[in-house]
Amino acid sequence: MATSTSKSYYWKGFRDGTPFIFVAVPFGTLFGVFATEAGLNIVQTMAFTSTVFAGAAQFAALQLLQDGTPTAIILISALAVNLRMAMYSASLTPYLGAAPLWQRAFAAYLTVDQSYACSIVQFEKEPGMTVAQRMAYFVGSVTPITPLWILATYLGAVLGTRIPESWALDFALPITFLAMIGPMMRTPAHVVAALVAILVSLLCAEVPYNLGLLIAGCAGMVAGAQAEVMLDRRKALP
């Protein structure tokens, strides 16, 4: 019975994650095109996208690679862009932390914006889910995206500049994040964190090597945490 229930949650996650393929496919295709333009061959491009599996960090690293940025700065910038994954992991730990080690390692690889956005909403909506059910849902939410992301990257790398500019594949990046941000603005602290991060990122737009993103991310986290502390104190007042 438990296995059957886990399967049903897997397919629920699959259904919830499916809409993201409409942005993951053009996003992955665009990365394949950019990677070949940056001088990577198909093997290097596919190894990059399969091992890193983090679109925004991949784009940031490619841009810096094209600019001739030192390797150390490329790595730091890519890690900075991907810093949100550490926050995602910390947020998911209360729900998935009791799973076996191999499952947690697998989940760590599959932790992307879409799987986190779907899962955290589902876990908070149904707090009575078992760890097995949560893990099934989590894996299901990213199943439609993972193979299509890799396939789309391959197609982009093969087709390269033959894809017309009129297709405007670069629309996928902002739309992906806009679609995920809305449902996650559930508390005033979330809103404060988002607004502060946006403001600081605009102020730090001229900081070299995309390091402004790291500054903005840290500022957003600090502001959100402080807002949550202040709200908790206010609730505790008689």
From TrEMBL:
Transmembrane segment boundaries: 20-40, 135-155, 191-224
Coiled coil residues, start to end: none
Chief site of localization: membrane
Protein's membrane topology: Multi-pass membrane protein
Pfam families registered for this protein in UniProt: AzlC
Domain of life (superkingdom): Bacteria
InterPro entries given in the database record: Brnchd-chn_aa_trnsp_permease
Compartments, record wording: Cell membrane
Keywords: Cell membrane, Membrane, Transmembrane, Transmembrane helix, Transport
Keyword Cell membrane: yes
Biological-process GO terms, alphabetical: L-valine transmembrane transport
Presence of keyword Membrane: yes
A single GO cellular-component term on record: plasma membrane
Family, as annotated: Belongs to the AzlC family.
Descriptive protein name: Predicted branched-chain amino acid permease (Azaleucine resistance)
Species the sequence originates in: Ruegeria intermedia
Phylogenetic placement of the source organism: Bacteria, Pseudomonadati, Pseudomonadota, Alphaproteobacteria, Rhodobacterales
